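Putative 6'-deoxychalcone synthase, Picea glauca. Tokens?
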Amino acid sequence: MGSAGKVVELNAGTKIPLVGLGTAAINQNPEEIKTAVATALEVGYRHFDTASLYRSECALGDALKDACLKGLVAREEFFVTTKLWSEYLDDPVSALRTSLKNLKLEYVDLYLIHWPLRLRKGSSFPIPKEEDFLPLDLESAWKGMEECVHLGLTKAIGVSNFSCKKIGDLLSHAKISPAVNQVEMHPLWQQKKLRDYCSKVNIHVSAWSPLGGAPNAQGSNGVMDNPVIKEIAEKHGKTTAQVILRWGLEQGVSVLPKSYNKGRIAQNFQVFDWSLTAEDHSKISRLEQKKANRGEEVVNSTTSPYKSVEELWDGEI
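Tokens:
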């Protein structure tokens, strides 16, 4: 499959590579991150996903700068996504400038609101305290995101962990439509309703933790251990991870597997020259659904804008 099958055009006009390397690894050794990025570039990856929260921006930036200096890749040949953390919703422009300094880049390709949540600076992580929550004004935050586009700091803007309703609310006032909604998605949390809605409003869906392990303690390897997935993998002579990622691609989303293992980084990119069967899809569609990251840590009955998990996801759980 040529490069045309490895990217998709966003509503902002930019093209997002369909397989990216995730770097959600808090406390990860920077040298390991740099080695993983170098390996990924060599394999063929051109999409790298980070966030200010992950603390991987500096290591990613170092690796990309090194690759550019060596002539291995040019800036216009790779796609970088980073995210606005909840402590900086009041000033997306300044937050992105900080991220760009960390990344050693003049612009990113995609900038996302990480969560529909506003926290005070220096808030407790991963479980905010009651006093950490601040009033949420997504309309104002989105204006700041749009300003990032106008200033040339990012090619496209979008959201992460947004429900259909929250996207609809955003679209009611947005002058620039979100290009992407990055969400948990894998065979055990297939997000069909959300994907159908995003398709209708021309918003691309990108899957974080496409292999089923959330980037925190709530994560589960249930997807990788699923007997149905294992059976399909054996039939095709593929790894379980390859089957899961291929399934995501065939749903029309981009996938962001995270690995710092050289062999697995290469294997996870070998998903473009084969397909799943209709029977495979039928079996996967019948798997029991369970969201790994429910966001319970940002729910409380007093200061959070969300008094229940159901309210956080607008019933889409």
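The chain has one domain: 7-313.
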